[in-house]
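tool_call: predict_structure(chain=1)
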Amino acid sequence: MTKHSLEDRIGFNGQAPKPGAGADQSARDYINLKLAARGYPILGEEEDFPFLDMARSLLLNFQERLRQLKTSGPRWTRSEGPVGKDEAIAR
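tool_result:
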């Protein structure tokens, strides 16, 4: 087994990736995933992107958590305890 440098193992060898069908499909999957995560329409048909279909439940979970954070917001109160009067503590 040959030993490879760290740069080669993580894919950072100073060369740009070669264009090709695989790289293009990965880029489209990534872009559509980012669009879907932000609630924007994707490019193309959803059935053409199985990765997006697989990630749909994670995206819905992420969007629901984001919605809950926006509606509830942080609840801050002043502490009279050992932290001090002027320290804000999240409850």
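agent: The CA atoms of residues 8 and 14 lie 9 Å apart. Proceeding to next step.
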